[in-house]
Known about the structure:
Two copies of one chain form a homodimer.
Chain A: E1 7-11, H1 12-25, E2 31-32, E3 34-35, H2 37-41, H3 45-54, E4 59-62, H4 65-74, E5 80-83, H5 92-97, E6 100-104, H6 107-114, E7 123-128, H7 140-148, E8 156-162, H8 174-187, E9 194-196, H9 200-203, E10 213-214, E11 237-249, E12 254-255, E13 261-262, E14 267-272, E15 289-292, E16 295-298, E17 308-311, E18 326-330, H10 336-343, H11 347-352, E19 359-363
Parallel strand pairs in A: 1-19, 2-10, 3-4, 4-5, 5-6, 6-7, 7-8, 8-9
Antiparallel strand pairs in A: 1-11, 11-14, 11-18, 12-13, 14-17, 15-16
Helix pairs in contact in A: 1-3
Amino acid sequence: MSAFSGNLRIDLAALAENYRLLDRLSAEGCETAAAVKADAYGTGAGPAAKALYEAGCRTFFVATPEEGVRLRGDLSGPAMIAILHGYAPEDEKHFARSRLTPVLNSLEQIRAYASDSKPGHAKPAILHFDTGMNRLGLGAAEVESLSKNKTLLEGLKIEMIMSHFISAEERQNPHNEEQAKRFTKIAQDYPGVRRSLCNSSAIFGDKGWHGDLTRPGMALYGLNPTPEKKNPMRRVVSLDAPVLQIKTARLGETAGYNATYRFDKETRLAIVGVGYADGLLRTLGNKAVLYWRGHALPIRGRVSMDLIICDLSSVPESQIPGPGDRLEVLGENQDADALAKAAGTIGYEILTSLGQRYKRIYVP
Amino acid sequence: MSAFSGNLRIDLAALAENYRLLDRLSAEGCETAAAVKADAYGTGAGPAAKALYEAGCRTFFVATPEEGVRLRGDLSGPAMIAILHGYAPEDEKHFARSRLTPVLNSLEQIRAYASDSKPGHAKPAILHFDTGMNRLGLGAAEVESLSKNKTLLEGLKIEMIMSHFISAEERQNPHNEEQAKRFTKIAQDYPGVRRSLCNSSAIFGDKGWHGDLTRPGMALYGLNPTPEKKNPMRRVVSLDAPVLQIKTARLGETAGYNATYRFDKETRLAIVGVGYADGLLRTLGNKAVLYWRGHALPIRGRVSMDLIICDLSSVPESQIPGPGDRLEVLGENQDADALAKAAGTIGYEILTSLGQRYKRIYVP
Lengths: 364, 364
């Protein structure tokens, strides 16, 4: 790596601690799984899953079979790897070879998956019921069909049934109770089968929702699952970016493409080697700040592909950074949720947008 | 790859054709370089640079030394690789081993780079003058210092001088002429040295700006360098995403997280395996469309990390897609500029955000 790389630090101890905190918060007898899809929310699925495994996690959720195949290679011991996108016959070899468990989202997926089961060798599966998202999962009509025709499940071993909240981070939102009720009603048709309903935020909701397995994602990676309260999680992701050049803009001059910021006084600037190709979303232009020794440095003008322009006015002359110094993008002064707020998005998108040019440092 | 992967197609023949078109548009005797930074604007620096090399390109611009080192490994013949972020002593080994040419942006970078030059072995460099961006490059005061103290350049072979337009895509913007004038004035101090001022859009501007070398980026990758006119470039990037499930929402139900869209009639939906972790920016939620056989399918509700919900109302019942069918994200109905418009950003950010989970297909 070079003097011009941003450093992306992933604190695996904090990740493990977050896992243990969420596990302690879960109801008695409830297992805590981990969502490690999308490269573990941008943090790196391999190192993250290994750390989570060491912390005791034995069930992992990813989106696609490819993610599952890679994850199986990363894990050294027994674990369930669940594929949220479900099952397609073209992917049979991935499921078989890497022992992946599909989350079956439709009657069609159930039929396809069950079609080649062999007597005495029930195939493991999770059933996903859509209780209000209108995204993946069996809808009301399919739930009813399945309930009337349980033979569709012959040859399958239903490891778990699950659903997903649409507004779990809004503690008082009536959607939560409605969805929980619908799920409980459906679950009556599956006596003795494990139940999973809770994402990160829902773990902090009604303990009655916890069921047999929770499956946090964002909170593991340090995002705030209780946005109306102080973040109970430890920060996992830190990012700095290198100062390439210090310069002085004169009164009346402008910053960056299309001159979207005009200096109303002579202004010292740091030109910083990070841009939207690295995941610093363009919406942050003229909106966000970076930090240097606790001083907030506003981004002036547009975010470029590989560069931003930061205003050093808040920094005393004796403390002005120089080329090679590193400014905080994510760290003790600003977490991914805060940067997301400046961008008008959510911390998840900040994390999954983290680019490929950083030096990735995994702190054990 | 699996049934659940999006397919990202990069048309290398179109890329090469775009290069040749831009080269034909350049003034007589003017070389056409290529900006291949940020993984060739998300298209893949290795395959893109090889195709450009075969089309005759011999000068490449990247942002960082690491990008330069990787690119040197990708190229089979002689070429100049210019590093836009400039030079830092820590990276001397990269510059030396991979024969990288720094774009020197400050007196400090000039001094550092020249400091260990050996008599008879002048080190190649490009000088970058900031003519209005207040981003990288020698500012007015540094230009003057350098002009009065040319001994700073001893030991260096100045291959080229360059600057960068801030609003080149706005043909009539007076910034363009101002910057060109400043650059011409500075260039008088460097007689006989090659000059480079033009990015993609500027190539379509005043031929007097072309100088000795143009360095297009976005137009190579099919983005429109003349936003007020029809796009003269060929499309390079196509992207489809798989339908995972077809379902029907009932009147009054909602779509996705936080119920940001409510159905005012029974509505057929396609649940599609692509999300913001794949670069489908969250700002596209309730804004953009995907295409199926020419029919526009609006995204309903928020973009999720791995999924979106598309409205099939415009599709005749006999043509409803099924699981495994692939919807057009980028293609003949919608290019990156159009998708960017829906997201409130520019095509560049669409391209550099293209995710890692796609199956990448390079069409020769």
